[in-house]
Amino acid sequence: MSVLICGGAGYIGSHNVRTFMAHGENVIVVDNLVTGHRASVPSSVRFYEGDIRNGEILDKIFTENQIDAVIHFCACSLVGESVEKPLKYFDNNVWGMISLLEAMQRNNINKIIFSSSAATYGEPEKIPILETAPTNPTNPYGESKRMMEIMMKWLSNVSNIKYVSLRYFNVAGAWHDGSIGEDHKCETHLIPLILQVPLGKRDHVTVFGNDYPTKDGTCIRDYVHVCDIADAHVLALEYLRNGGESNIFNLGSGDGYSVMEMITAAEKASGQKIKLEIGARRAGDPARLVADSHKAREILKWSPKFTDMAEIIATAWKWHKAHPNGF
Length: 327
Ligand code: NAD
Ligand code: UFG
Hints:
The protein is built from 10 helices and 13 strands. The protein is α/β, with parallel strands linked by helices and 327 residues long. Strands 3-2-1-4-5-6-11 form a 7-stranded parallel sheet, sandwiched between helices. The longest helix is centred in the N-terminal third of the chain and has 21 residues, at 86-106.
């Protein structure tokens, strides 16, 4: 039996491909390469270049392979862009999910692990955030993820499809040997942007606001290593294979780091001083987002291996230094 990784050529998907392979799984990938990279997937993996909104391609994949479960990473995921182009997000994310679930039903595939996001919560009422917290997304990206979760919930009520939705907080870092990592042409994430300074690709990093009600005035986020995220997917699949019910889990470290602390950790990881400038707040940024991930620890027996921020950033640094222009 094989596992189908949708979006396996992307940042998080490609780390999952390697992690599932390391656990002895046979992996198949489908990806339209809109933001992914063919080179991030080992050549030994059967790769289908295609769009999951195309049901014929999915039927072909499910017919040509014995697939036991789907791991679903495909999405447009730029928060700012989603505000400007909401329909792009509902088309790719929501319609993509409908197409995938329909194909799973047609082909009797009954397990799916889904990449959800802290963006489903919106502005939190309480920190740390529990899975039972209200979901009031503040942008179309978060709304699309919430809609995808809701579709799985209603479908699982009337079919044999079981799902695990993993709500990631801030995903960081790269594969230990620096061979794969984050390579987004339109980069908005803090760590790659900070590391562009010691790489000589930008003069400084801009800190988006230092007047938040936090210890140093900059935003606090919960960063979790991409390989720890991948381990959680392996555990989630094991959970469903063992008869676990459909469920939702937060994935975060439970520790909050401010933007200033992240720059200091990046200086330690890169061994270089990093120039910064204080800029205006970025619209829609909550002051503090930290996960309560006890549920994943208790039920999935998930335990993040990376706990030191400089160590997490050091893995990203290794990747960016070896591939300053990406793949
Ligand atoms: P990414 O853009 O690197 O990966 C997404 C992959 O899916 C790409 O390879 C892309 O080409 C592919 N894809 C997109 N739409 C497709 C379609 N319709 N058909 C086929 N392939 C398609 O993004 P990422 O950072 O690896 O994120 C992966 C998932 O995790 C996304 O769903 C994202 O919303 C979610 N997520 C990411 C973070 C984060 O911090 N990076 C946080 C929370 C949730
Ligand atoms: N930041 C800066 N300067 C930059 C870039 C970011 O100060 O140049 C700050 C942001 O304001 C924020 C923090 O660094 O406070 C982290 O920003 P990212 O863009 O790296 O990540 P976000 O917290 O905005 O977004 C992440 C995921 C999204 C997910 C969201 C949930 O990337 O997919 O968490 O809130 F939707």
